[in-house]
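Batch manifest, entry 17 of 40.
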Amino acid sequence: IFIDEIDALAPKRDETYGEVERRMVSQLLTVMDGLKSRGRVVVIGATNRPKALDPALRRPGRFDREIQIGVPNKAGRLNVLKIHTRNMPIKKEVNLERLADITHGFVGADLQALCKEAAMNVIRRVLPDLKGESEKIPPEVLAKLVITAEDFKAALKLVRPSALREVLIERPTTRWEDVGVLQELKQQLKEAVEWPLKNPKMFSRLGIKPPRGILIYGPPGTGKTMLAKAVANESEANFISVKGPKVLSKWV
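Output type: structure tokens
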């Protein structure tokens, strides 16, 4: 038995004001306890809000195991892209590894939507050549139905990553050339941020662990934020600007 969005059926009883919801939670707990032996019945629940579930459900004897499905990493995104594009006519110039590199925060559904949008872009381009008179598509038009790297680039403008929806994503336009002087500091940032992100295999081969955090300090107006934007842009990383008080928010 698969119960999707189980948080709607079994919210926390302390935070629920309605009597109906409380009774539903109690009934679900009673029914789960009624399964004396597993036999041929397995109950699986799914939720994207585990903190909203009643804690009485999350104990051995009811839901014994908790499995977290996280946001896929680069290798996971590449696998998902390969699956969604295996039946699509794609030009050789389309680099799926590069696409997996830049799709930070994309989950499986986002990558599926990305492939779909790229295909829709091709159809929009070829649509003027199609005539409604014939049901069959001419071979010369079919030959044009090929997805290019430009189609994926256009699709990336429309599809937003689900895992980063709560946070404002800004792609900085600042480059190293825009930052005057500070040559030594720029070199340090390149070695600490840009190199490990662009050449991770080299670092793992040499057994070097790159720094996890960097603190830039100095008086106002000396270019601290500008340097952070430049290193984010040059490293092709997401740039999330967070003010001090926002750190107290659980969403950041």
